[in-house]
Design a protein that fits this description.
By secondary structure, this protein is mainly α. It has eleven helices and two strands. The chain has a domain at about 40-120.
């Protein structure tokens, strides 16, 4: 009897989740289309997203993006040094470390005075290989940040961004029992597979489910 009640509650919550998705589907699809268009833009535009994702750990996404826009407006994102960039990151945590990481990441893609990032990304065969390369080569990028960046440039349909907002929802809907106290790469990929199976079961695309969960926690569909 108890198991039946639990199953009924689970079915109700899933139905509720699908209803929420139905209401937000148009806005979610629009945002995902915007992400896919970004890779068609300039290398500088793609680098903006990489720099943004370097800023987001333990910081608000909106504050991180505002900082990137300020750097861009002041013509510092593409050529500013550490001392010039650092003050513009005062709204994000660990601004000194993140300023260093932006400068270091930029140097990796800088060729003859130009940022050339798109060729490197597109030379890798699929999103998982892209993620592996980013983790190995971009200081400050783990699975979450790499997945976030790739989603934001249109390569995230098979990746998950397991931040605290997503993990809370995965626990809420019974996908995981507990939120891990620490996230190893192995644990990240294990939870990612569980979220993929859940996405397939409820028939909500993985990248759409991510934005749905994020909006449930924050109230906005952002990036």
């Amino acid at each position: 009897m108890l198991l039946l009640k639990i199953e009924i509650i689970f079915m109700y919550t899933i139905t509720e989740l699908k209803q929420k998705y139905s209401k937000k589907k148009k806005d979610i699809d629009k945002k995902l289309d915007e992400f896919r268009e970004i890779f068609k833009e300039s290398d500088k535009r793609v680098f903006e997203e990489l720099a943004f994702c370097l800023c987001t750990p333990q910081s608000k996404a909106t504050a991180s993006w505002s900082a990137i826009l300020s750097l861009k407006k002041n013509n510092l994102l593409y050529k500013g040094n550490f001392n010039q960039i650092k003050p513009f990151l005062n709204t994000v945590r660990f601004n000194e470390t993140k300023a260093k990481r932006i400068v270091l990441a930029r140097s990796i893609f800088m060729k003859n005075g130009k940022i050339l990032i798109k060729n490197k990304i597109s030379s890798l065969k699929n999103s998982k290989l892209m993620r592996e390369w980013l983790i190995e080569n971009i200081n400050g990028f783990g699975p979450k940040e790499s997945s976030h960046f790739l989603r934001n440039i249109g390569f995230g349909n098979n990746l998950t961004i397991l931040d605290v907002h997503i993990l809370r929802n995965l626990k809420k809907y019974g996908v995981i029992e507990e939120i891990p106290s620490s996230m190893t790469h192995k644990k990240y990929y294990e939870i990612e597979e569980k979220m993929k199976k859940f996405s397939k079961k409820i028939k909500i695309p993985l990248d759409a489910l991510d934005l749905l969960f994020w909006s449930e926690q924050t109230g906005i569909i952002f990036k």
